[in-house]
Amino acid sequence: MARQTTGQRDAAESAAEESERPAGVDELWSAVRIDPVEIALPKGVGYTLRAYRPVTEVTPTDISEREEDAFPERARPASEDQPGNGYADEYDEEDDEDEDYDEDDGFEAEEDEDDEDELDEAELDEEEEAAAAEPEEVPVFLGRAGLVYLFRSPEGLVDFVKSGAVHDLSQLDTWSELTGKLSADDVVPLPEDTYELDLVVDNLRGSRETWDANLVIQAGEVARDLGYALRIEPVIAALAPGSPLDDLDEALRATEGGGLGGFMARRRLKKIGAEAAPLGWRTIIGKISSAVDWRD
């Protein structure tokens, strides 16, 4: 299947957002609290299923039999001379001294960061109480033994769902309801559940002005979900809070928000290592690819 350019993808997403799924399809997925997902990887495009459930209601996937490093050439640790997950070149040296904005900007970064970090103590307490009251929801994918199953067609996905095979989603209380109702016409992922991991590295290899914020942000979302659900430790570490790729994600989100925060984020993007970002993402995609089981 030919992949779209970034411009074509944006146009296709806009068209998809304007045309809603049939009401019956939305009702089915809402009722079972499971969603179809489309993931594009270097080896092709596949469909799978994902659900979010409280961590107290699901059993983590068993990875004791999974073969690690199926793609060692993509998972090779970075050497001292080559940036990778460690991000030796995270920041450009020429930007190291650019701690504050100059006078023409009218404000200093340090002061703005202080303003951004100020949180009302009462609100913080409320957030902590809410988090303690409700268990965290975690992602679960259609797969087993630390692997995610991808299907090249909706028909292949539906045939497997109805096969009665054991997998990580079969523990869900709504699984039997889905197996009795699902048809190929129902496998229509929403735009926000469509991820193009195959385009991320090439996009980040371009100039910062051509970086596709939505593409990278969405890729980070599904990579975090897959890393957690499949227990892929290198992916979890690479996208953990405070990591260089997480900093990139946050900066891109801020640029999408526009305004003063977007202006500041664009300046922060200039400090992201232009070589490190695509290398880091190549490692992530390699690790995810090694945990994919193409089923048809």
Descriptive report:
The structure is a single chain. The chain is an alpha/beta fold. The chain has one domain. 45% of the residues lie in helices and 12% in strands. It contains 13 helices and 7 strands. The chain has helices at 6-18, 23-32, 72-75, 109-117, 121-133, 154-161, 175-181, 200-205, 213-230, 233-238, 244-257, 259-269, 276-290; strands at 34-41, 44-54, 137-141, 143-144, 147-150, 194-196, 292-294. The strands form 2 sheets. The protein has a 4-stranded mixed β-sheet. A 3-stranded mixed β-sheet has the order 4-5-7. It starts with 5 loop residues before the first helix and ends with a strand.
Radius of gyration: 21 Å
Helical proportion, percent range: 40-55%
Measured between the Cα atoms of the first and last residue, the distance is 15 Å
Strand numbers in spatial order across the main sheet: 3-2-1-6
Low-confidence stretches: 1-19, 69-113, 259-263
What share of residues are in beta strands?
5-15%
Could you say which overall geometry the principal axes of the C-alpha atoms support? globular
- How many separate domains? 1
Which structural class should the secondary elements be placed in?
Answer: alpha/beta
Oligomer: single chain
Strand tally, please?
Answer: 7
Helical stretch tally: 13
Which series of helices and strands comes N to C? HHEEHHHEEEHHEHHHHHHE
Write down the overall mean pLDDT: 77
Sheet bearing the most strands, described?
4 strands, mixed
Core attributes:
three-stranded mixed β-sheet; alpha/beta; 12% strand; globular; four-stranded mixed β-sheet; 296 residues
